Amino acid sequence: MTLVSIVQMNSQDDIEANFKAIESLIIKAKSGGASLIVFPENFACFAAGKQRETAERFQEFQQRLQQLAHTHQIWIVAGTLPCPYRPDGTVVPDGRVRTTSLCISPERTEARYDKIHLFDVQVGDAVGGYQESKFFEPGDEVVVAQTPFGNIGLMVCYDLRFPELALNLRHQGAHLLTAPSAFTYTTGQMHWQLLLQARAMDSQCQVLGAAQQGLHGEKRQTWGHSAASNSRGQILDRIDSEGAQLITVHFDLEEQAKIRESMPLMQHRRLLQF
Predict the structure, then answer these.
(1) pLDDT tens digit string along 199-214?
(2) Tell me: the pLDDT tens digits for 231-246?
(3) What DSSP letter does each residue of 138-168 carry, written as one string?
(4) Which of 87, 181, 188, 253 could form a disulfide with 157 if both were Cys (CB 3.0 to 4.6 A apart)?
């Protein structure tokens, strides 16, 4: 059995203040016995229009996170960072960047996932419309990271709305799904918890949803409510108050194996043509 921590943050454009909160949360998770900590989307810097500027410091941030993982001997799913280059090293063209989630062990970066589904939607909030594709290039690779306590399928925010990704990750051996997110207050209120539970039910993976919460600048407001759903789709724990904090839950590979054996969804699945 393993303990895993899921973070909630209210990140702003002050990178050093954000990293101070990051290390404090890592210390808290480790003191509670956690082997893994999951941070939300935009955890190092949440500032509209600064994606490219922040991306220029990607390697610096990665090294700082690797040092934190080593110092505190904990695995980190480093929410998301804007990255100016693709996994093969080529520069993202047209001034765009990629939304990148890193899985970091106490020794090194073990995996990189670039967000596949981009949030180009109209939302009835103070911002109104979102067009991530204007600033970000989508990734095209499904990524599962191997760890001593189970395989982690990496997802990000809007990816939660696409069950085929969760199923693909399960097919590739995932036991846990991480979902660093910055759901808008409007969409989060309607769908956040439902999506965490649905993807857990679909894939029979434990889903760890780390969320941003509160106001970021003058207009952007995120829902928060970081939560974990077990492999049956039941909420294990959830944050219902404001501010930077975490929850820690158990993950048991043996228990998950029994759930999957008793209801063998993958063996029963039939592929239907759209």
Answers:
(1) 999 999 999 999 999 9
(2) 999 999 999 999 999 9
(3) PP----EE--TT--EEE--GGGGG-HHHHHH
(4) 181
